[in-house]
Structures are given as structure tokens and as C-alpha cells.
Amino acid sequence: MVEYTMVDSLRYLKTVGDQVRRSFVANKTILAFQEYMEAFFEAPRVHARDAAQYIRDCFDYYGTEAVQRASGNVRRFKLFDRPFDQMAGVQEGEGGSPVIGQEDVQNAIYRILHSFVRAGRVHKLILLHGPNGSAKSSLVAALQRALEDYSRKDEGALYRFNWIFPNERLVKGSIGFGETKLGTGAVETYSHLEGEQIDARLACEMKDHPLFLIPRGERQRLLVDRTKPGADFQLAAGVLEGELCHKCRQLYASLLQSYNGDVLKVLRHVQVERFYMSRRYMIGAVTVEPQMSVDADYRQVTADKSHGALPGTLQNLSLYEPFGPLVSGNRGVIEFSDLLKRPLEHYKYLLGTVETGIARMNHFLLHLDSVLIASTNEKHLSAFKEMGDFASFKGRIELVRVPYLRRIGEEERVYEFKLKESVGKHVAPHATWVAAAWAVLTRLKKPVSDRYKGDLRKLADHLTPLEKARLYDEGRAPDRLSSQQARELKKQLQEFWRESDSYPNYEGRTGASARELKTAIGNAAQNPAYKCLTPQAVLEELEALTRDKSVYEFLQQEVVDGYHDHEE
Fold first, then answer.
1. Backbone dihedral region of 334: left (phi > 0), alpha (psi from -120 to 50 degrees) or beta?
2. Angstrom distance (rounded) from CA 488 to CA 546
3. Does 143 map to a domain?
4. What does the alpha-carbon distance between residue 124 and residue 357 come to, in Å, rounded to a whole number?
5. SS3 category, 5
6. What is the largest CA-CA distance in the chain?
7. How many domains does the chain have?
8. Which of 200, 203, 205 minimizes the C-alpha distance to 307?
9. Is residue 484 part of a domain?
10. Beta-carbon neighbour count of residue 559 at 10 Å?
């Protein structure tokens, strides 16, 4: 056993301290406003994005790949493979699993983000809908995790600002307006003062763009001149026309009046701070559960004794700090999990908010810069569509369908990731394939033969569930067909795949969920009658599952020519 001395521990702590300090400086964590403007001039497009542009650029940053499918190639966004978790050594059990399949959903979200960018603002709520356990939450979790990683890159740098008021020893009778030099020819600043030199530090809870501190007209001219908007970059309305939050506007106006209109003296109170997206700390990546509480509120700053150190000229201001998920998630993405489980009155405001970008509080308005993504299951969505208010809401919602997987190979990969961490036994060949095949077969629907003409109608009518599954998975036609029939069937594969897209009861809406199959596999792995996880052990668990028809709705479907005959 190696013994460590006090010298070793001090040396280690010094090494860590040096690394943290270098990282702090290299990442430009704390800047004076002039230093921030230098960063803006170096990369104006990086610092002139709204939330939709930022998230769209996050998609682009991690790139795409063409995934081969039996029906043709499809674009997949690599962020859903979570490469950042693999590099960081995050284990599957810690939430590092990639999203398997669902490329259609990925592309739909990207198209919607791109439409927000073209429109110059976020004007709709993205509503992911599908059966329970179809990876809706996993898709959003992967996106939020990507934003966390992207915000630590130079290309994803994000900044907010704080108001700094120095103590009386520095200002000697002034009211927070002393002189600290940044350097030769530089603007005076309080941004780099040590903690004991500061009497009060007020943060902007909304994480406003530091650019909002530049008067709107000047800012618009600056942005157009520096970003050169065109086909490859559009300036968002929120960045061009946005204003400071209510609290910051009051502070700015009061300081400007105290300094007789000298805006440079106002800006020396500004400390620009880099921030990083974080799900854990609810910074720009927030998930709201379907509770009954409101999503934003406020408290009075000047009622708090800890803020008694504010300069005298500011103590007569009624300053309010907003808080809540809408505030924490500003500048990023907010997920409303199972949104439609809430009573209508608890989310009706949200659909108005997403259209205008404004949430109304009692004393002020919150101007939001966020992409709002919600999820719901099909049962709650169907009930929502029956409400009289749905007609007025549907124009503010982008519906994105998230069905169960319909390819055996993809479904099997879902279980393989789970098995890596949860099964302590050897896994026999085909054990996961049996579970995946059965799950996919429960989700498939018999083709509507009347949609097809000639010989194809007969082929569609006689296609068995397993034959259809193999056609989807491998592009493999049944061996019983002639070569000409096989070619004709494979030629229409995309038509089969899209056949029920316009149906309310689409293929992939019903069936066994991956959650239920993971439980069955886990139970099979614990079966003492088997030394390893075998296909037979899995089949026994599936057989037991099919006996409880009252629990699983998919077991109550009518059998149609072998489809939905789950016991077989």
C-alpha cells in the first residue's frame, strides 16, 4: 500500500488548482464588457444566435451519417449516438445509451428547428407523441446532453452577465462608481474585482444576451454589419429586437441616469460570465414533470436584507427576480414531460406563450428565448383533440410522431445495451433476437391489400407477420415467391413502410414496449432453471406475459390473418 505524505497532497492540490485556473482563463469564464465585445468581433455569428439557431447548430456540430435501410438510406444525426458520453466514459446505467433508430423523428425535429431559424423566432411547441416507451424522453435527454457538451466547445460558447457594485473602500464616498482600470486605453471595469471588494452582485436570471446592453438601433447596425446575414445565416428577431429583462432594465436606466447618460460608466458595472448548459443544475436544459404548480414566479429582491448593500440610488427600486422552469430553461430547451396529463388550464397559457414568446407575470413580462418540447402518449393526445379548444391550439403545435421500432435488428440493439450492465449471466446466441422479434411482431399491422394493384395486391394480402418483419429488417422477400414477385415486393417496400402514416391507428402505435421486454429479459436472466440467458428462458417469460390480457392493451387486439396472434 502506497503511503502519501502532506507534501504529496499539497503538490496534488497545487496541480489541480493550476489546471482549474488555466481552464478558467482559457475558457474566458469572466470577462469585462469590452473583452466580451472583442470575443464578439472575433466570432460574431457564434454570439448572435437565439435558442433555435443554437440548438440547430448543435445538431450540425456533431454531424450526420447515412444509415442503410432495406427501404433506402436515411440521414441520422450523430448526437443521438451520444459520442460525448463514450469519450467521457459514461456507462449505460448512467444514462449514456444512444437512441436506437428513430431517424424519422430526428429529421422531423431538425426540420422544425430549421423552420424556426428561417422564421427568425420560435413560434410553435414541438409535441412528441407516441405510445409509452417509444423513446420520446430518450430523444430529448440525448439532445439536452448534447447541448451540455456543445456549450463547453468554443463553437458553443454562451454568455450572460451580472451587475457588480464595489464596496465603499474602493469608491470613497461615491455610490458604487469608482475607477478600476482594465488596461491602457481600456474601458474601466469592476468585472475582475475580488470578492471582498464587492458589496453586491446581481445576476440576470433570464441569462440575457450581453448584446442587449447595446441600444437597439446601434445593436441592429452592428449585427447586420458583422454577421453578414444571408442564406447561410439569419439574424433572429429576438437578438435584433430583444430587450433587457425587467430587473436589468431598471438597473441600467437608474445607472444611466446617475452617470448623466455616460453608458461607458454603466458598462463598467457589467461582468460578463460564460455559462454552461446543465440538466442537473437546470441551466438552459430543463425537464418539467406534470405537476400542478406554475412554471414561473417571482420574488422581490429589495425585500431581502442581503441586498441592503446596493448603492443608495438603487435602493428605491422595486426589483423582482423571476424563477421557475421557464426562467431556468431560457436560452436553451425546456421539456414538458407528459404535458397533456396536466389539466387544460395548466398548459393553456403555454400555447399562447410559445406563439408570442412572452409569459405574463403580475408585475412584468417575461420575454423567452427557448425551444419548448413536450411529450404525450396517444391516449391523452386523442382526448385533447376532442376538446373544443384544440382547433385554436393546433396552429401553435408541431406534432412529431414517435412510434415503436419496427425493425428487429434495431429492437435487438436496445436490449443488448441493457444487457451490458444488468445481466450477470452469459447470454446465449439468439436470446435477445427472440425478444426483439416477438416485440416487433406485436406492433405490425396487416397490409391493406386494396391499396395495391395487380399481383402486388395478392402478395400484400398473403404476407405473414414474420415475412413482413424480415422485409422491413433485411429487405428480404419470402422464399416462396418467384424472383419477379420478390423484386416487385421489394420495390414497394417504402410504400408498405409508409402505408399507415396517415392513419390514427398507425403501425407502431400499439404493441409491446421495450420497457416490458426489458423486464421480461431481466426475469428470464434470473430464472434458476437456466445457467445462462437462453432463448427458451425468454420464451417462457413471454408466454407468461401473454396470459395477463387485462394488463396489456395490445393483447386485446383482434387477430387478423396471424397478425396480433401474440401467443403464437
1. beta
2. 36
3. no
4. 10
5. coil
6. 96
7. 1
8. 200
9. yes
10. 11
* Nearest-angstrom CA–CA distance, 483 and 509: 33
DSSP letters, 493-539, are: HHHHHHTTTTSTT-TTSSS--HHHHHHHHHHHHT-TT-SSB-HHHHH
C-alpha grid cell, residue 158: 454562451
Residue 432 in any domain: the answer is yes
| Whether the Cβ atoms of residue 346 and residue 292 lie closer than 8 Å to each other | yes
CA 420-422-427 angle, to 5 degrees, is 60
* Domain assignment of residue 331, yes or no: no
Model-level pTM?
A: 0.90
Beta bridge partners of 360: 365
Three-class HEC string of 120-186: CCCCCEEEEECCCCCCHHHHHHHHHHHHHHHCCCHHHCEEEEEEEEECHHHHCCCCCCCCCCCCCCC
Cα-to-chain-centroid distance, residue 358: 21
Residue 108 grid cell = 422531423
What burial letters (b/e) apply to 173-206, b meaning 16+ CB within 10 Å?
Answer: eebbbbebebeeeebbbbbebeeeebbbebebbb
Nearest to 122 by CA among 321, 287, 265, 334: 334
Of 435, 446, 439, 451, residue with least CA distance to 507: 446
Contact (Cβ atoms closer than 8 angstroms) between residue 414 and residue 405: yes
Give the separation between CA 324 and CA 334, rounded to whole angstroms.
Answer: 11
Nearest Cα neighbor of 272 from 159, 181, 166, 180 is 159
Residues 206, 249 contacting (CB under 8 angstroms): no
How far, in Å, CA of 512 to CA of 330, rounded?
37
Return per-residue pLDDT of the chain as tens, 568 residues: 455 566 677 787 778 887 887 777 767 799 999 999 999 999 999 999 999 999 999 999 999 999 988 778 899 999 999 999 876 555 444 456 899 999 999 999 999 999 999 999 999 999 999 999 999 999 999 999 999 999 999 999 999 999 999 987 776 545 445 444 443 344 489 999 988 889 889 999 999 999 999 999 999 999 999 999 998 999 999 999 999 999 999 999 999 999 999 999 999 999 999 999 999 999 999 999 887 555 666 677 654 544 667 777 787 788 888 999 999 999 999 999 999 998 887 788 888 888 889 988 888 889 999 999 999 999 999 999 998 888 888 889 999 999 999 999 999 999 987 776 556 678 889 999 999 999 999 999 999 999 998 889 999 999 999 999 999 999 999 999 999 999 999 998 999 999 998 889 999 999 999 999 999 998 998 888 888 899 999 999 999 999 888 888 899 889 999 999 887 6
How far is Cα 208 from Cα 162, in angstroms, rounded to an integer?
10
C-alpha span between 17 and 365 (Å, rounded): 42
Q: Are 297 and 324 in contact (CB under 8 A)?
A: yes
Give the DSSP letter string of 205-258.
Answer: TT---GGGGS-HHHHHHHHHHHH--BTTB---HHHHH----HHHHHHHHHHHHH
Answer for the pair 210, 270: CB distance below 8 angstroms, yes or no.
yes
DSSP string across 357-391: TEEE-SSSEEE---EEEEEE-HHHHHHHHTSTTHH
Helices 431-443 and 535-546, packing angle to 10 deg? 30
Domain of residue 469 covers 408-556
**Helix-helix angle 465-474:408-422, to 10 degrees:** 80
